[in-house]
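Below is one protein, fold included:
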Amino acid sequence: MITPAYPWLNNAILLAILGGYASVILVMLMGQSRVFFSMSKDGLMPKVFSEVHSKFRTPAKNNLLFMIIVSLFAAFVPARVVGEMTSIGTLFAFILVCVGVLIMRKKMPEVPRAFRTPLVPFVPIAGIFVCLFMMVFLPLDTWIRLIVWMMIGFDLYLFYGMKNSILNKGQFSLKSYKTVAGSGLGMVLALIVIAFIHHNDPNIDDHFLFYFSLLFAAVHTLIYAYSFKKVR
């Protein structure tokens, strides 16, 4: 057993880590409610998420919803798991932003912008590799949770967002269905592979997470396969 030379410094570091987690989660909560608000305005989420408070003019129902969800997580999910999910979710969001910069710069150069990212494509490509590098060192069970959350988001888009999108005006091509379903099948495969690798670690007892992952993957294989059959 290693005895630290300055035990009080360990506690100070723990407080700093908890403070960092709290600040990041708070900012993400405020941002997430606005993201749901914008998605609802675009038709990708139910209209209840775009309702604003009559007095404060804020998405109060969104804030209440996320307050309840995060409170339940804080009460019943270990801090390590919450911290790692926050880290991998934030890093993955940064990767999507960097990819979006590349796509918009190439396919939508005429769209008005508040500012332009300099040194494209170096900056977004470097951002993608740096974030991915940090994600690689997170535990495999965190990757499993990330993929599961992404698949839930795909479900919402596949069965609600695509049909109610204001941008597409309800007119979506068969190629769009195949793209979403194909991406979903790719995530199913990734979930199964990561679940088996994690389960084969002799130092980890993850029977519940392993069988949940396999069941979740099997159900979504049927869902995405049906989507492919539906568009034929």
About this structure: The helical segments are 7-41, 60-76, 79-107, 122-136, 140-164, 174-199, 207-230. The mean pLDDT is 84. The two ends are 63 Å apart (CA to CA). Residues 7-41 form the longest helix (35 residues).
